[in-house]
Amino acid sequence: MAHRFYLKSDKDQVKTQLHIAFLALFFNAVAFFIAIITGLYFLFFIFLVISLTLIAPFIDVPQLKKSGKFIYYSNLFLAEKEKDGIIKVHGGTLFDYVFTLEKSWSPQKRKSYILQQYLEGLLTLIETFENQDKIKIKGTTYFVNAKTLKRFGFKKVSTDNIQKFILFYNYFNLLVSNSFVHQKLSFPSMRNLATFEGEISEIGKQKELIETLNQKLKKQ
Predict the structure, then answer these.
(1) In terms of residue numbers, what domain contains 72?
(2) Average pLDDT in the 4-31 region?
(3) What is the pTM assigned to this prediction?
(4) Total domain count, the chain
């Protein structure tokens, strides 16, 4: 399964981004017009913030990939460049969901595919840095089971306040993403939010387990 956005030519990628930006601009213009009539400017401000969080990944992620700041290790597993011995990883965004998940898939199939892509990306990352044992992988998630991550060699660490702020600021984006996966209104459980960290050397020891689960999910 390919990432349909990156199958487009550069020209068509830009056209898609402009189309999304113009749609957001149109709806914000309508919201502003309503705010002028009703005087409910605070509602316009809320709408503006929400719309910006929704379209941001459609603009930012391709640009970060193009600049090399984001690297795709699978369709739904991204990582920043290594810095100070740490590689920060991220799950796919709403942008990635839209261009990889098939409309015909059931919610269960979608969740299985997302998890499978996480595992595939993790395996690729391990193989890329397997000779650099001291490098650590770090990520924050509410989607993946904590017990599973610990089996892979990750340890739970405190989530820094900046990361918490970013996630709560993007809560509506997470809500839409989660609902897109489940094909119904589905609120993400921020109680399950946690940050995990592990050395490549320790995670690599569980490579066989990760590969087994990856193959199992591929068959679902």
Answers:
(1) 4-218
(2) 96
(3) 0.93
(4) 1
